[in-house]
Amino acid sequence: MNTPILKKIITFIIITIIIIIILFVPMFPRLILNSVKNDKIDMILKIPKKEFIISYIHSVNKSKIRDYYNINKDKDIVLEKTRFVSYGAGVPEPKEGQTFLITDDYMEIDNINMIIKDLYLSIGTSANHSLMIDDKIFELNKTFNPQTIIKIEYKNVNLFYYIKSYITAQ
């Protein structure tokens, strides 16, 4: 076989392999939100500081609750603390090892450190669920219909997946 043709074939194969790797190997860590019902990826979010907040209006006492999460080194979602204005049904009591803080503006349970393997959230009809990353707020009821159950996870996605979700979201 002719050496220039062999070099072109090898070059083509190498370039093809590199393109496949770039497109299909999960390399980009992202926060993923998807509807459980149709398993459709609705949001892929970059989370530089590996911290986010989910806030909502409590269904019983109608006050705002903010749950503070971070991503640990194993890519688990960890509930660090919760902040609220008043107690009501479903608002937790501090447990041993957790700190409880009362200010003029809120009450806070810190040092919860609960690893959540599967974080599911049911988008409420009047809870106004939102997700905040840094200073950017995503109002979840604008992406998901009320009473939609979503799964929130942190994982690596590949470039093809990322581009596909961006195109289908438009």
Oligomeric state of this protein: single chain
How much of the sequence lies in strands comes to 35-45%
Biggest β-sheet, characterized?
8 strands, antiparallel
Q: Which structural class should the secondary elements be placed in?
A: alpha+beta
Which stretches of 5+ consecutive residues score pLDDT under 50? none
Helix fraction, binned, reads 10-25%
User: Count of helical segments?
Assistant: 2
C-alpha geometry: elongated
Order of helices and strands: HEEEEEEEEEEEEH
- Computed CA radius of gyration, to the nearest angstrom: 22 Å
Mean pLDDT: 89
Structure summary, number of beta strands? 12
Termini Cα gap: 49 Å
List key phrases describing it.
four-stranded antiparallel β-sheet, 2 helices, elongated
Summary of the model, kept short:
With 170 residues, the chain is α+β, with helices and mostly antiparallel strands.
Q: Topology, please?
A:
Blueprint: H1 3-24, E1 28-35, E2 41-45, E3 51-57, E4 64-71, E5 77-84, E6 99-102, E7 107-110, E8 114-116, E9 119-122, E10 130-133, E11 136-139, E12 149-157, H2 159-169
Antiparallel strand pairs: 1-2, 1-12, 3-4, 3-10, 4-5, 5-7, 5-8, 6-7, 9-12, 10-11
